[in-house]
Amino acid sequence: MNPGQQPAWLARPPRERLARTLGIAAWVVTAAVLALVGLMRQVRIPLPAGIDLSFLPPFHAIVNAAAAIVLVAALVAVRRGRLALHRGLMLTAMALSVVFLLGYVAYHFTSDEVRFGDADLDGTVDAAELAAVGRTRAIYLVLLFSHIVLAAVSLPFILLTFIAALTNRFETHRRLARWVFPMWLYVAATGPVCYLMLRSYYP
After folding, report:
1. Dihedral of alpha carbons 23, 87, 194, 110, sign
2. 144: closest CA among 71, 66, 201?
C-alpha cells in the first residue's frame, strides 16, 4: 500500500446484521466475566502439588503496562492517518487484555486475596498495620476502586467499539472510542500502579 493510500477494508459496507449478533455476544461475555469476578472472592480451587501461580501478579502488571503502551501507540497512529497500523495495534491491545483476563481469573480462583498493609500476611489488616501505612492505604483503595469500577463499566463498550470497527461501522466506532479509549487506557495504566503499591505484601 502506498503512503497515504486508504486500506481497502475502509470502503466495505457496514455489516449491520453481524454487528447485532456480535453485540448480543458482547453483553453475554460481559455478564459471564462479571459473574466469574464475583465468584473469585467466594470460591477457591486448590492447585495440584508442584503448581505455583505466584508469578502471575507481576506478569499481569507487565501485560497491563504493555497494553497501555500499545493503546497510546494506536492513538498516535490513528491521529497520523496510519489506519492499518492502528488496526494492528488495537488487535494487539485486545489480545493482551484477553491474556490478562485469563491469568487474572486463574490466579484469583486459586490464591488468597492479598491486602494492602497486611505486613504479617495473616489475611487481615489490624490497627497497628493500619497505623503503619497511614493515608497510603486510602490512596491505594481509591486507585483500586476506580480501576475495578472502570474495568467493569468499560468492558462491554470496549467490545462494542471493537465490533463496530470489525463490522465496518466506522462512525459508530469513532463515536464510542472518544470516551471508551480513555477509560481503557486508565484501567491498563493503573493496573501496574496497583501492583507496585501491593507488591511488598505478596508472600
Report:
1. positive
2. 201
What pTM does this model have?
A: 0.87
Write down the residue that cell numbers 491498563 correspond to: 188
Chain segment 19-29, per-residue pLDDT in tens: 999 999 999 99
Q: Distance between CA 112 and CA 51 in Å, rounded?
A: 15
Q: How far apart are the first and last CA of the chain?
A: 52
Question: CB-side exposure of 193: number of CA atoms within 13 Å?
Answer: 18
| Interatomic CA distance for residues 75 and 59, integer angstroms | 24
CATH fold of the domain at 52-201:
Four Helix Bundle (Hemerythrin (Met), subunit A) (1.20.120)
Query: According to the model, what pLDDT value does residue 79 have?
Result: 92
Q: How many residues does the chain have?
A: 203
Please state the φ and ψ torsions of residue 146, each to the nearest 5 degrees. Answer: -65, -35
Average pLDDT, consecutive stretches of 10 residues, N- to C-terminus, the chain (203 residues): 57 81 94 90 83 90 96 95 92 95 91 86 84 89 94 95 92 94 96 93 82
Distances (CA, A) of 105 to 61, 136, 176: 14, 27, 27
The domain segmentation of the chain, as residue ranges, is 52-201
